[in-house]
Amino acid sequence: MSELTKKLFTLAFIREGNRLLLGYKKRGFGQGRWNAFGGKVEAGETPEEAAVREVQEEAGVMVVGGVEKVGELLFTFEGDPTAMHVMVFSARGYTGTPTESEEMKPQWFSVDSLPYSLMWPDDELWYPIYLRGGKFRGRFHFQGHDKILSEKLEEVQTFD
Ligand SMILES: COc1nc(N)nc2c1ncn2[C@H]1C[C@H](O)[C@@H](COP(=O)(O)OP(=O)(O)OP(=O)(O)O)O1
Known about the structure:
Largest sheet: 8 strands, mixed
Protein name: Oxidized purine nucleoside triphosphate hydrolase
Number of domains: 1
CATH topology: Nucleoside Triphosphate Pyrophosphohydrolase
Keywords: Cytoplasm, Hydrolase, Magnesium, Metal-binding, Nucleus, RNA-binding
EC number: 3.6.1.56
Subcellular location: Cytoplasm; Nucleus
Radius of gyration: 15 Å
Helix content: 10-25%
Low-confidence stretches: none
Mean pLDDT: 97
Distance between the termini: 28 Å
CATH class: Alpha Beta
Pfam families: NUDIX (PF00293)
CATH superfamily: Nucleoside Triphosphate Pyrophosphohydrolase
Bound molecules: ligand LXYW25GO
CATH architecture: Alpha-Beta Complex
Order of helices and strands: EEEHEEEEEHEE
Number of strands: 10
């Protein structure tokens, strides 16, 4: 079996009570889907620093008080030797007004009516854990970008 190369990404949430800020991805990977904010971790950055930077670049708001890690996900795609290792964070606070960027169009959603049919198919499996304050670790193997062939998801207390 061939070796997988793992690339590190972030995904970060801005949440205010019962509403969650998502962005409509206008270009690139995941184009046409609503998602949290994130991208590649650059050389010399910690995942936390990358998460804060991506939120600022994509949603136009500044994270205040840092980010808390809430999840760790591994995505693999049939026929693709590169796995996406995604660290999921929740911002402790933010300042500023969400503003459309070249990559994302931000919009607030009620946590009770998230647009799951327009999001990645894995999201409706792990979002409920995040939304009730839990932490999780999961892996999802895709055929194309629409079909999950296999999955493993667990709620965890810590990430050590
Ligand atoms: C496969 O399922 C996925 N579900 C969810 N919810 N999010 C995913 C999934 N696969 C990837 N992602 C996330 C991880 C990252 O936040 C983005 C992809 O990052 P992107 O390619 O946009 O990285 P950037 O550094 O912003 O890229 P460019 O600046 O080169 O456009 O999707």
